[in-house]
Write a structure and sequence with these properties.
- Helices cover 51% and strands 9% of the residues.
- The protein is mainly α.
- It has 2 domains: 100 residues, no CATH class; 133 residues, no CATH class.
- It binds zinc ion (ZN) (3 copies).
- The site of one zinc ion has 8 residues, from α6.
Length: 257
């Protein structure tokens, strides 16, 4: 059915615009106003200019999915956006990112549900992949019996590439329950220590010696998180390393005593 009121206004052709707040834009009116043969400026000129503050039209919004019509209160700018959407739809290019805005309540709920399902599946597969990567990381990098088959210069990058896919907290927990002497034999620790020595240009960071280099934990607060807390580690020669441990031992005894 044609909106006769609207037509009367258009036919009257007065310059103040035809469409006023409170008007009802029926399906036919929407069809008329979104006809691609009309220039957009012409459509805009049909709306009265200065009386829209806080006011709305009642617009027949046609669901782009199921075609159901819902009468919705829309402001002037929302109405123009809607008309533009329909215009594009009629020329065969539906703006995908606006479908949610204009589809009916039922279709919107269905789309929301479908999106949630996809998101859930995605999250689940991310978790599964992470769990798998963590297991593989532990099996390989934290096995004291495993030996690297590649040159030391590639240890660190190989380690980090696998670490980023795994769960850092599970790895740290695993490291913390290992006997420390076993931990020191793991490919993980060998790679970390190698990297710390490389950063120190293979010199003791206290005396500059190049002999018998060790990697030392300044504290054990970040034990198991060495990859992301490399500054907690220091490259020392055997002698300086011993001095550090003697000093720590004395401090502990001092604190006790
Ligand atoms: Zn629908
Ligand atoms: Zn030294
Ligand atoms: Zn140490």
């Amino acid at each position: 059915m044609i909106d006769l009121n609207l037509f009367a206004k258009i036919l009257a052709n007065d310059n103040s615009g035809y469409i006023e707040p409170g008007d009802v834009l029926t399906e036919e009116a929407v069809s008329l106003l979104s006809d691609p043969q009309w220039k957009i400026s012409k459509v805009i000129s049909l709306f009265k200019k200065h009386c829209w503050e806080g006011k709305e039209l009642s617009v027949a919004v046609i669901c782009p999915i199921c075609g159901q019509i819902e009468m919705r209160p829309l402001t002037k700018s929302q109405t123009l956006k809607y008309l533009n959407f329909i215009r594009k739809q009629r020329t065969g290019s539906i703006p995908q990112d606006e479908i949610d805005k204009w589809c009916c309540t039922k279709c919107a709920a269905q789309r929301q549900k479908a999106r949630k399902k996809i998101e859930q599946k995605r999250k689940q597969s991310v978790l599964l992949a992470k769990a798998k990567a963590t297991k593989e990381f532990i099996n390989y990098f934290l096995d004291p019996k495993k030996k690297w088959a590649i040159e030391p210069c590639k240890w660190w990058i190989t380690l980090v590439n696998h670490y980023v896919l795994a769960d850092e907290h599970i790895i740290a927990k695993y490291i913390r329950q290992m006997p420390y002497s076993e931990f020191l034999k793991t490919p993980y620790w060998l790679a970390v220590a190698q990297r710390v020595k490389y950063d120190a240009k293979f010199r003791c960071q206290v005396c500059g010696s190049k002999e018998n280099l060790n990697c030392h934990h300044r504290s054990y607060e970040y034990l198991g998180y060495e990859i992301t807390h490399r500054s907690e580690l220091i490259c020392l020669c055997q002698n300086c390393h011993q001095l550090f441990h003697d000093a720590t031992q004395k401090n502990k005894e001092g604190a006790k005593g």
